[in-house]
Structure to design on (300 residues):
């Protein structure tokens, strides 16, 4: 393989070392990319000397990375460790209680109303077709039972949908407050 | 004070537009480092050294406008490809508008228009 060429090896190793001092994120990926560039350029027929010359001295290349990544707004220490924990704490303090209440209430209403609505609806349908078991008493008549069942189910489903929508909003909020760290896929 | 060399001027100008051109190159298709470098080289005045383009690609990734992914290559280890993120598309359209407004203004200025 072309990367085994001693000149390439020396260049890439020296670059890796220089980059360690510059210490940007994605170091392994950057080194792999430069190695790949040398291989690609050679495969395209460019003499190795030219390729390495165009890349320039390893220190300058490493410095160019350090400069670019230092002016990057996201790789700048925007969220230092302490700040990150503080924000997690703030987020928990701020949204945990309302989330607990909203999700519990909406979730309970969603599940219980949907299920009981379904039961009342089935009972109403059974009553309408005369197959209602004797141990169930329907005081409001089949039509009212069917309507009540449908109403309960609609309320339950709406409530469940509300819980899901709230969860989505919450996820977005968490992502905004705690963006994924740079340099991680 | 030394007068600003024309090459310095060109390279400063290029620095600013390089980001726009890289985003544009990646608008419709994914690509990898060497291909992006050679595409820019074929565009003459935009030809920036690889020691400019590669670090810039990493910054655009750190900014969240590009992302990398690995794809098998016919020879050798898997290759790192770049693609635009949703943020990158928004940025591209914003930069494109800026650029059009800028070149319009410069063209009118050079023509001697003084509104």
């Amino acid at each position: 393989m072309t990367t085994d060429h001693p000149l390439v090896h020396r260049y890439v190793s020296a670059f890796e070392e220089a980059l360690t001092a510059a210490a940007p994120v994605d170091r392994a990926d950057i080194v792999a990319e430069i190695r790949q560039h040398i291989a690609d350029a050679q495969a395209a027929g460019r003499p190795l000397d030219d390729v390495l010359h165009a890349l320039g001295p390893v220190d300058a290349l490493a410095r160019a990375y350090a400069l670019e990544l230092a002016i990057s707004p996201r790789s700048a220490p925007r969220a230092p460790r302490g700040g990150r924990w503080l924000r997690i704490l703030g987020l928990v303090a701020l949204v945990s209680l309302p989330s607990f209440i909203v999700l519990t209430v909406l979730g309970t209403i969603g599940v219980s109303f949907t299920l009981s609505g379904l039961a009342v609806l089935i009972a109403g349908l059974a009553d309408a077709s005369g197959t209602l078991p004797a141990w169930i008493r329907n005081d409001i008549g089949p039509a009212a039972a069917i309507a009540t069942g449908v109403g309960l189910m609609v309320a339950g489903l709406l409530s469940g949908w509300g819980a899901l929508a709230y969860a989505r909003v919450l996820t977005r909020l968490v992502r905004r407050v705690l963006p994924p760290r740079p340099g991680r896929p | 004070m030394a007068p600003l060399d024309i090459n310095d001027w060109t390279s400063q100008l290029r620095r600013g537009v390089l980001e726009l051109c890289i985003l544009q190159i990646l608008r419709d298709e994914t690509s990898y480092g060497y291909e992006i470098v050679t595409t820019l080289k074929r565009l003459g005045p935009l030809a920036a050294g690889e020691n400019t383009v590669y670090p810039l690609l990493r910054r655009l990734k750190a900014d969240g406008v590009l992302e990398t992914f690995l794809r098998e290559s016919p020879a050798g280890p898997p290759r790192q490809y770049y693609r635009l993120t949703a943020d990158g598309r928004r940025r591209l359209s914003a930069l494109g508008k800026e650029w059009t407004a800028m070149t319009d203004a410069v063209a009118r200025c050079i023509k001697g228009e003084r509104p």
